[in-house]
């Protein structure tokens, strides 16, 4: 993954804060090496900023026989480092310091660990060998320069190479000393120069020993070296030809170092380059194995990858089946009809309805309680369908997200699936499905049925009285009639027929009301089931996508 574009550089503090946040966001998602490297840069920056920013640590690095130590002595104006020809003579890094107020003498003297303000810096760099340099008028210009002579990076001694790697990673300014015979050596280009492509602002390349070449050959070597550096991503790095033996080019190198040191910003440029390199490593780790097409845009603006709605609907349908919502909806309709018949049925047979169990109470679906139901557990097919729906949500959400972040998105979608069954049962048990409220017409129909039952009772009682009088052969009072039918018979038969007709009408109305309440219950349950899906599946997925988007933004800012 590459960081595209280049905006106006942000303040160093903001870039380091962005890098630290990116490392925290990538914890557990990316490889530990890239994350730890980013954190190490942030930690190192904190330490370096607490040390003297008035001093610039400049390291001379090169291969065996490149003439580093000779150049070190030439820059110091006095022999400090031991010079060798074919074998490494620098076993430990040593420092030369230019400090104000010492122009009255020449030469160099060894100093202790607390070399003025540079002491803590050198302690942090781990350079015990220190020499104070006085050089007349040049001292004022180079005040704050801390020049380091490093061991050879290709030394046969492992400790020497490790010392070079350590110091190359922390000094403020790097001066690579190459010689005409080995300036194209792959060891220096592949191991150091190319990985430090983002550090071109804190790097100078010196081709030493040009006095051994004819002027035309020296010019060709310098041009060839510039071409090699351009291939390494170091096109704008200053390339100087010098001769430590004759002094040719040393003045130009001194001027370049004086210019860099006088700005007192090399340390900040180095930290900014470190932050950009660490951000690039995080970006590369993000798209490892995804091809070069996946890139993090500079300045943030990570694409928000929404969970598409069809996948969400499929998830809700699968959760509804697993939560036995169809069974609940059917029970709502049955419970409505059951309660309607019990409230509006013919009083003569109504009591029989009360002997039947209420469908909702049997399932423990009262809309309140301990949050548990008696619904049947989800079948293996329903559980499998639910798992497939959850996986589809994760797969859809991860589309367009590079690995290994895509794996984290898919894992986030499944991270709380073990809670689904219990959450679904609890939300179904505690959700009111709207069957507790009694319709007003039930009371009116119930009152009418009791009125009709009373009418029947009056008719039956009247007929009973007439039967007793006939049985006792007592005179019967006159009985009013409706046409030819006596009123007692009309009351008895009419009440019975009317009661049955009202009961039949109420059953039809109850059936229609049951369907209406079932549809309402389905909508309510679908809403709460969707909430469960959002909380346990969609929300973790979107949180991971948001985390990825924030990571992309922070990496882009750190690398800008």
Automatic annotation (TrEMBL):
Residues forming the G domain are: 58-209
Q: Which UniProt keywords apply?
A: Membrane, Transmembrane, Transmembrane helix
The record lists the membrane-crossing segments as: 447-469, 489-513
What ranges does the record give for the region Disordered, renumbered to this chain? 288-307
* InterPro entries named among the record's database cross-references: GTP-bd, GTPase_Era-like, P-loop_NTPase
What's the protein name? GTPase
Origin organism of this chain? Sphaerimonospora cavernae
């Amino acid at each position: 993954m590459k960081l595209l574009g280049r905006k106006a550089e942000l303040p160093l503090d903001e870039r380091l804060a962005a890098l630290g946040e990116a490392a925290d966001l990538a914890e557990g998602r990316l490889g530990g090496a890239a994350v730890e490297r980013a954190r190490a840069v942030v930690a190192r920056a904190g330490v370096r900023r607490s040390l003297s920013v008035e001093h610039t640590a400049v390291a001379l690095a090169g291969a065996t026989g490149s003439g580093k130590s000779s150049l070190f002595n030439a820059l110091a104006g006095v022999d400090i480092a031991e010079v060798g020809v074919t074998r490494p003579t620098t076993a430990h890094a040593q420092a030369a310091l230019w400090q104000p107020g010492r122009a009255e003498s020449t030469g160099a003297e060894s100093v202790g660990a607390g070399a003025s303000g540079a002491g803590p810096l050198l302690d942090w760099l781990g350079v015990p060998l220190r020499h104070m340099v006085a050089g007349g008028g040049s001292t004022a210009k180079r005040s704050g320069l801390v020049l380091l002579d490093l061991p050879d990076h290709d030394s046969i001694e492992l400790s020497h190479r490790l010392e070079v790697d350590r110091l190359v990673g922390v000094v403020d300014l790097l001066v690579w000393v190459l010689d005409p015979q080995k300036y194209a050596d792959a060891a220096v280009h592949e191991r150091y120069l190319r990985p430090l492509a983002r550090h071109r602002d804190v790097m100078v390349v010196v081709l030493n020993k040009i006095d051994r070449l004819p002027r035309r050959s020296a010019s060709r070597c310098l041009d060839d070296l510039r071409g090699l550096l351009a291939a390494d991503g170091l096109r704008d790095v200053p390339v100087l030809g010098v001769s430590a033996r004759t002094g040719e080019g040393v003045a130009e190198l001194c001027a370049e170092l004086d210019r860099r040191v006088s700005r007192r910003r090399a340390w900040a440029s180095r930290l900014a380059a470190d932050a950009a390199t660490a951000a690039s490593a995080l970006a590369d780790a993000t798209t490892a194995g995804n091809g070069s097409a996946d890139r993090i845009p500079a300045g943030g603006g990570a694409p928000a990858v929404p969970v598409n709605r069809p996948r969400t609907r499929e998830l809700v349908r699968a959760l509804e089946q697993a939560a036995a919502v169809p069974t609940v909806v059917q029970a709502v309709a049955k419970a409505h009809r059951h309660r309607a018949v019990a409230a509006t049925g013919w009083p003569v047979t109504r009591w029989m309805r009360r002997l039947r169990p209420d469908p909702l109470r049997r399932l423990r679906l009262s809309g309140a309680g301990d949050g548990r139901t008696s619904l049947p557990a989800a079948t293996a097919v329903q559980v499998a369908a639910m798992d497939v729906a959850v996986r589809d949500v994760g797969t859809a959400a991860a589309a367009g997200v590079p690995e290994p972040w895509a794996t984290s998105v898919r894992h986030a979608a499944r991270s709380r699936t073990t809670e689904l069954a219990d959450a679904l049962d609890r939300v179904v048990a505690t959700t009111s499905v709207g069957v507790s409220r009694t319709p007003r017409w039930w009371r009116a129909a119930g009152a009418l049925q009791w009125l009709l039952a009373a009418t029947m009772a009056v008719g039956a009682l009247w007929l009973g009285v007439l039967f007793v009088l006939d049985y006792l052969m007592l005179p019967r009072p006159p009985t009013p009639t409706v046409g030819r039918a006596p009123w007692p018979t009309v009351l008895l038969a009419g009440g019975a027929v009317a009661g049955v007709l009202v009961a039949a009408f109420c059953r039809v109305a109850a059936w229609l009301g049951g369907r209406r309440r079932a549809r309402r219950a389905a909508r309510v349950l679908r809403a709460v089931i969707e909430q469960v899906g959002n909380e346990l599946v969609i929300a973790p997925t979107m949180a991971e996508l948001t985390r990825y988007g924030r990571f992309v933004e922070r990496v882009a800012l750190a690398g800008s």
